[in-house]
Amino acid sequence: MFYYLIYLSDSSNSNSHHIIQNILDNVADWNKELDISGFLVYRDGNFLQLLEGNKNEVLTLFTKIKKDQRHKNVTLILEDESENRIFSDYESGFLVPKNKLVLDKLNNYLFNLKLLENPKINSTISILENILAKMY
């Protein structure tokens, strides 16, 4: 079983492009080292992230994120377990969309996952799609 969670947060450094860019540039590598897959989206001072993997690793990382001074108002949206990862094969397991084209690829991937007709995953994807639509 794999554990996953989705959270939203506000950047406490929304005016510091350098700090945000550092997070976006390095998060995929950091999470791959922990065998955590998922994605991170940043838009207008807000982060949306899905983390999935070993429950202890994901929860440890989420605790660090909640304590990280670069985040504020960290809000857990959903947590659950699944037999399979949602992002196991996509973009080497972790995606950070930095432009509209990559975001469109993410939306297409989420749409295609719904075709697998897994009710739990479909519910999760619907939540993600709704949040992403409001962010962009």
Describe this structure in words.
It is a single chain. This protein is α+β, with helices and mostly antiparallel strands and 136 residues long. It has one domain (2-97): 2-Layer Sandwich (Alpha-Beta Plaits), CATH 3.30.70. It is built from four helices and five strands. It has a five-stranded mixed β-sheet, with helices on both faces. Helix 3 packs antiparallel against helix 4. The chain is globular, with a radius of gyration of 14 Å. The termini are far apart. The relative contact order is 0.22.
Summed up:
With 136 residues, this protein is α+β, with helices and mostly antiparallel strands.
Key features of this structure:
136 residues; alpha+beta; Alpha-Beta Plaits; five-stranded mixed β-sheet
CATH topology: the name is Alpha-Beta Plaits
**Class per helix and strand makeup:** alpha+beta
Strand order of the largest sheet: 4-1-3-2-5
Helix and strand sequence: EHEEHEEHH
Q: Please state the second-level CATH architecture.
A: 2-Layer Sandwich
Proportion of strand residues: 25-35%
Helical amount among residues, as a percent range? 40-55%
Shape: globular
User: Would you state the CATH class?
Assistant: Alpha Beta
| Unreliable residue stretches | none
Distance between the termini: 32 Å
The Rg value, from CA coordinates, equals: 14 Å
How many domains in all?
1
Biggest sheet layout:
5 strands, mixed
Q: Give the helix tally.
A: 4
Quaternary state reads single chain
Please count the beta strands (DSSP E, at least 2 residues each). 5
Average of pLDDT: 87
